[in-house]
Fold these 3 entries.
Entry 1:
Amino acid sequence: MDEFLTWGFILKAVAVWVGVYFLQPLLFVLRDKALNWYVEKYVLTEELDTAILQRAADVWVINNRSKVAQVKVRPEGITYLLNGEEVTEDQYAAYERMMNFHTNREASHARLIRNCEFQLKRLFHHYKQDSKSPIPTWEKAAYERQEALHKAQDQDKK
């Protein structure tokens, strides 16, 4: 008579049970820990934090310190206007340099931030994580901090 329950069959069944109910969940936990370590070490870095803060400051300057700049050429000479007020050529050039600096730096930081956000999105999607990227929340908080800071500075000047 053939035996259905051989020692080999019992050992295979126990090995499958241990693998499915102990090893697989343990490996998933280790994978998630490794993913979190990678994200904290290589994606959510000091460089990203600095970029978010500087971009918030640049966006605030671009949104709140922009002026209508005009250059009028007349027979008497060139007139430089900022918000309708006549300014010197040096003041106009300084304003243009300041706005170009903030615009270029904002664009550079925006690329870095979007790349990190895309990397997080792809990692979380690939490993089927329910986590959301914290970057939009950080950006919003940084901009609100900039608004509060400048509001306080404007009140101190009054």
Note: The longest helix spans residues 89-126.
Entry 2:
Amino acid sequence: MFFTAGITSCGLDTFYLLKGPIIFHNRPELTNSDPVNNFVDFSTNENQNLTSDFDFTGTIIYYKIYGKYESVSTDISLIESRNNDSNYGAALDLIKSKGYRELRCDNNTEESFVINATGVNKRVKIRLTDYNLETDLNPSADNVPYIYINGVDTNKKPKRAERKNGQNLDFNFGRNKTDLNSPKPEPQDNDFDGVEPPDGVYYVNMYAVALGHDVTYKFYYSNLLYLGTIRINSNSEMNW
């Protein structure tokens, strides 16, 4: 929806409020102990009721990698306290200041993964790592990295914003020591809190946000939807 406020010499200033994603079908909590649930599953919100001069772009995902369990819990509470209808930008500004980055997909790209708006809500399922079951050394299609939209495999692999050797790194931390695209996070990485976990377990916190722009290309953002926290054990071939 939108509203207008403030009179200027050119008339009324126009402000836009975007509705954020509001439905989650699977949200792995920080305490999740079931590898089967180690994925996020949510629906976009495309019923925006915006004027024709506003371009609703779609939905993007923000993430951050943590090595310290306690820091994840503290940040989730703090972010949620800033995430309210009266000031959508506060929570987004906070996660950006804390080093959250926009999720990428595939290699050789610095562009964010965008779930493009079409006017119809979409169900989005994202799994970050190849293996999620300790007994599954030859994973089925349901257990490999994917981004599914409305049940259809997009053939895109989730990637970090961090790049090395001209490639976007993936989330298979430490699994294959010879794979240059799967290293453990390093202290200098911009998407990592810099704390190496003593048990080798990392946590990836994820949020979704809707965005769009007006005719002057000023961007507006919705409130955030907490998607969940993905657990990744770098000492296990299955990352669990």
Note: Residues 20-233 form one domain.
Entry 3:
Amino acid sequence: MITKIFLAIILSISLPSIALSEEKNLDIYMDGSYKMLKAKSNDIDFSGAGIGAGTLYTFPTSTNIKPVIGAYFDYNATGSNSTFIVFDHFNYASAVLNLGAKYKINSFSLFLLSNFGYAYYNDYGLDNAFMNTNLITYEIKDHYFVGGSLLGSYAFGDVFSMGLKTTANYHVLNKKLKIDGPIQFNDNSNGKQTYLETGIGLVLLWSI
């Protein structure tokens, strides 16, 4: 009789923790998106595509809304036609720290994330669209951004999910003319520049 009572107590303590541990708390995802960079200062607007990959860790709690921390890396290629023969491009790669929350109900998960990013690679310049030659290049330094993302996914089984991600980030960077090519123009866009980035894309997510 004492043995049965002891086993019942052990099971009552261990079963909730076992159920909690079976919940998958690590999500790995890839995304592809359409992005726009709207100049908030004396510069031009850009649009293009971005691809990225990230991971999100959900802290196990007994509530439906759980805290999340994650990391994300992406590469973005954007351009803008400033004239008929001159093409402005702005390509950059960034690393992002994510903090936020996850809400899950049945097969649907919703992540609300804050973004704190730094672009460690920047390629900004003007190209000749016909000759495929570089006309003007700029040096980009101190490219930081903050913002938020909303990621919603639907689970097709225990591991794979698919969904959409929307993003809005505010970028700040320093832009300096690096090479003055064969064309001459009045450049008023040197110095500190700011952009509003918006994007929407498809997300593929795996829970492990």
Note: Residues 24-207 form a domain with the Porin fold (CATH 2.40.160).
